[in-house]
Each structure stands twice: as C-alpha cells, then as structure tokens.
Fold:
Amino acid sequence: MATPLLVLIILAIVIIASIITSVVTYVILSGRNKRIRLAEQYRQLGITEQYLKIQDEIERIIRDATDEKGSGKAGKGKSTAKRKPIDYTLAKKFEANKGKLPWPADGPVVDHFGQRFHPVYTNLKLPFNNGVTIALAAGTEIKAVFDGDVKQIVVMPGYNKCVLVQHGNYFSFYCKLGTVSVKAGDKVKTGQVVGTVDTIGGETQLHFQIWSGRTPQNPETWLRP
Structure:
C-alpha cells in the first residue's frame, strides 16, 4: 500500500509534468501563431512568400559557393566542376578597394541594405535586405565591380537571371538581369559588362549584393560615394 509520502511525490511529478507540457505547448503555439501573423502582415505589405524563398535561395547559393569541400556533385543551382583554391591575393586586392569600387550601374538606390522597419507600423520588422536595389532605365548594362571569376549563373522566379562573381573569398551578386553576357568559368575585369537589367513587374531594377564568405556586406560602404 502506497505511503502518504509516495502519493505526494507521485502527485508532484504529475503536476510538474502537466506544467511542462502546458509550457511547451504554449511556446509551440505562440511561435506558430507569430509566424502566421508575420506572414499575414508581410502579405498585406506586398512581401510575398516567393520573395522570402528567393532570399533563402540566395543564401543557399552563397553557402554552396563557400563550401570548401567541393564535392563536385550536381544539385539544384550547383556547378558540377571541382572548386578551385581560393585566390587570397585577389581577395586582398578586393578588400583594399573598399569604398573605391565602381557602381555596377548608375541609378538611385531605392532599397538599402540591412534591417528595415515598416514606416507606419514601426515595431514591424521587414525582411533583412542582404543587398541594395538600384532603379535603372530599361536595358541598362550591368558591369562587374572588380576582377574575378564567374562562379555561377542562376535563374530565380522573380529575380530572373543572376550572375555570381567570385573575388577570392568575396562575392558580388548581380540579380534581375534580362540578358547575361558571361558564363560560368569566365574571368571578368572591372567594368566588364555581365548583362543588362530586366523589367520585372513593371519595375526596372538591379538587385546587387556583396558577400565576405557567408556574411552579407553593405554594398554602399564598398562602392564609391
């Protein structure tokens, strides 16, 4: 027959287990509800699921490009060629030109790098912008900002054609192109045309990014004032 002390211990364990279960359930539901509310807010602001998927895909491309293992296996958006050793001499030259790089095209920046907040709902975080968006005239030529190797050409819904150029352990990424005039493996020089801007959804804009390894950089601190 159970003693009063044993009964109390069992009761305490049951109560604690019930509390833990309630807390875990609350955290899970709160997280899910928060994601649902955020997705709805993004939808109302015109930020589509496709846009968020594009950002995830760009980060995946960069991760793949910086994977030093270089398995050479084919995959979505991956090159089948073995990766070359990183050119650290080129990387140092690129780094030495911080604040001096030419712009990929001349036009106003309409969307800046970094964490942004909604202008009205000031507590609402907008998706982090890993680059800058530059408004351009239709057909504007897009130029490489520094010497490098064309790492990859990718096509993404909503961003059309994109060119990834490697500068040692730095990368420049040119998106929303209508035409591309280079191919993977090409060497490019500073100022060389890599393609022309496209008009997508009625907007003619270049989306441009700079990465140091897997860390996005603010392009405006690297480009000429």
Observations:
- The radius of gyration is 24 Å.
